[in-house]
Amino acid sequence: MTAVDVASKPTALGARSREVGRFDRLVQALKDALGPSSGLTSDDIDVNFLSDLMRDYDSSDQEWSRYAFGDSSRGYTRNLVDEGNGKSNLLVLVWSPGKGSPIHDHGNAHCLMKILRGNLTETRYEFPEVAQGDGPMKVITKKTYKENQVAYMADELGLHRVTNEGSDFAVSLHLYTPPNVARGGCHIFDEKTGRRSHVASCQYFSAYGRLLKESL
């Protein structure tokens, strides 16, 4: 994929692929796997199976690029791909060079993350013992995921932050189920104090391949 300058305005990170196939099949396969259940917390859902579906997809075909709108003035952008019959959210996240997310929870939802382009570094933290914070947050692990690798995250594993430590845009595919954060927001945490605050809504930058007006 050819890198582009997105400093002045939001831009898709690649040309629209003329041959749509494998990425759309992945989207449908994830939706089919979730089926009528309520998400990854249901007994009939196999997290490893969902992970394998994402892992088996080769991101080099760049069919996902039609959803990859980036904005270098932001740490990252959230681009909606599919809402999974109301059972999940599938997003393409575009990460600006040298930036990342705040430390956050997942609103009692589960997240699968596949790296589509570049590398992303995940730092996991312990939950503070009190909501007001009790000092510097404790790091559990720090790991860099490379292109086509898949990671799984849920609140029982702790909190995390994701950063793009590279010099070019990175892109990842995220499956959230149930879509609790889209409906009720999440909590972000101050690394130095552990104090948490609630973010009522996590907005989309684009939806189904089109920029949203509030993003312009």
Automatic annotation (TrEMBL):
The keyword Phosphoprotein does not apply. GO terms for biological process: L-cysteine catabolic process. Gene3D superfamilies: Jelly Rolls. Coiled coil: none annotated. Its EC number is 1.13.11.20. SUPFAM superfamilies: RmlC-like cupins. GO terms for molecular function: cysteine dioxygenase activity; ferrous iron binding. It holds the Pfam family CDO_I. It catalyses: L-cysteine + O2 = 3-sulfino-L-alanine + H(+). Its cofactor is Fe cation. There is a cross-link at residues 111-176 (3'-(S-cysteinyl)-tyrosine (Cys-Tyr)). It comes from the Eukaryota. Binds 1 Fe cation per subunit. Fe cation binds at residues 104, 106, 160. Keywords: Dioxygenase, Iron, Metal-binding, Oxidoreductase, Thioether bond. The keyword Oxidoreductase applies. Belongs to the cysteine dioxygenase family. PANTHER family: CYSTEINE DIOXYGENASE, CYSTEINE DIOXYGENASE TYPE 1. This is Cysteine dioxygenase. It comes from Emericellopsis atlantica.
